[in-house]
Amino acid sequence: MNVKETATRISTLILFFCVLICSGTFDESPMVGDDTNHCSDDEKCSPDAKDKKPILIWWTKDLFPHDRTYKYHEITCKKGACVTSIDRALKNDPATRAFVFYGTDLRADDLPLPRKPWDEWALFHEESPKNNWMLTYEDALSHFISDLRDWTDSPAMPVEEKNRLQNEKGLAPIVYVQSDCYTPSDRETYMKELMKHISIDSYGRCLNNRKMPDEIDGFIKLHSPEYYKFLAQYKFNIAFENAICNDYMTEKLFRPFEVGAIPVVMGSPLVKDWMPNEKSAIFVNDFKHPKDLAEFIKYLDSNDTEYSEYMKYKDPKHITNKFLHKMLEERPWRVLGEWDKVNFGHRMYADFECHICDRVIERQEALRAHKSDPTKNPPPPPRMATKEHLECPEPTVSLETGKKVNKSLNYWEGLYEARAMKQMLLAGETNTTKFQSKYLKRLTDKYDKWVV
Ligand SMILES: *[C@@H]1O[C@H](CO)[C@@H](O)[C@H](O)[C@H]1NC(C)=O
Ligand SMILES: *[C@@H]1O[C@H](CO)[C@@H](O)[C@H](O)[C@H]1NC(C)=O
Ligand SMILES: *[C@@H]1O[C@H](CO)[C@@H](O)[C@H](O)[C@H]1NC(C)=O
């Protein structure tokens, strides 16, 4: 593929990947005595579903990537076919093998219990652990997803115009808009220090020092073209994520690229892999102290030639990152089907669905092989997700100031809930609504004792 074709492709497909996490399957095997090799014997573990295709149930049904007027959908994946449905009544069907949950909506008092040893639980999530603290502890397998958007379709505001706005409207070089002021990444401590060294217009609830223009105030309007135009007036946009996780990159990062500004990035350790080229963003981690970052931004603010170097990504021929091109061309998460034409946004869910279907089929094949020749074919090991799959380390401070990490009540509640959920599963509980009274014991146990 030549450069021109690639560029055209980039400008039509466009960027971005985003928001992350999601995952494969996590399975625990509470009901089988032999806890290292659950389902080591096909007959003992999984019911005979004869020639039926494995069934996947979307326990969180809102994300079901198919037409809901049909009760079932057959999907064809790499390894074979599965049936997918939102019908919870299929829970006990002998062919049912997997349940899909959305991270934010995962609730321990609404699970498909009793959990059978052959039930695969698959977790999909696009938010940081902040949306469901339990997932900080709960096992979750990570799997990369993407969403594409066009960042080259609107040119950046010329730097001369940005300079004029700074002089005439008194705009700062940097804009910051944030309403969530207590985050696992502790971005607020860093921001507070940064603001001591360089002028920043902060319009959100956190460290606010400037009033948002009336015409773009309010959440809905934050996605409007007016809001993008508003951000485009600034040379630099703060792009600090609420949590630092490998696969967590959000609109905070790609919006500056769309509007034509330089993102000042605090976020995923892998973020540099995804940049359009080597001079398009500034990374907090490249500087020892916010003061040094401020000096560098001031320099770019004063040197229009150098600033314009950072704006070159707006021209597709300057998107030189080969990895990014490759990901855009391959887009391995992309699945096309009939429904896809009417349901574009759900493509990634369908890909996830096939990911699970393929793993289920692989497992069944391995079990069959084991059954036919146990000495030659070892049983497939259980696949249990670990903390590393989520790749979101525990919250830390963003800057050494003597301030302690804010492990909020929610954070500790998450730990407590995760432990209670595990106990519930190990006990082989059949009634999920007993979670609170029997396992979590919210009313009798105090969370406070966890808080340090
Ligand atoms: C401005 O940046 C350019 C490189 O883009 C450099 O050659 C030039 O020396 C810089 N000017 C100043 C005053 O630092
Ligand atoms: C810690 O975070 C919570 C929100 O999660 C907030 O309400 C609380 O005020 C914070 N505590 C401190 C000391 O900053
Ligand atoms: C499940 O437990 C709840 C109380 O937590 C109870 O009200 C309900 O009747 C139980 N359901 C069954 C089927 O036992």
TrEMBL record:
UniProt-annotated stretches for the region Disordered: 368-388
Gene3D superfamilies cross-referenced by the UniProt entry: Glycosyl transferase family 10, C-terminal domain
Membrane topology category: Single-pass type II membrane protein
EC id: 2.4.1.-
This protein's record includes keyword Cell membrane: no
Swiss-Prot/TrEMBL keywords: Glycoprotein, Glycosyltransferase, Golgi apparatus, Membrane, Signal, Signal-anchor, Transferase, Transmembrane, Transmembrane helix
Any one GO MF annotation of this record: alpha-(1->3)-fucosyltransferase activity
Annotated Fucosyltransferase C-terminal domain residues: 174-324
Membrane-spanning ranges: none
Pathway field: Protein modification; protein glycosylation
Top-rank taxon: Eukaryota
Coiled-coil ranges (or none): none
Protein family per UniProt: Belongs to the glycosyltransferase 10 family.
Name this polypeptide is given: Fucosyltransferase
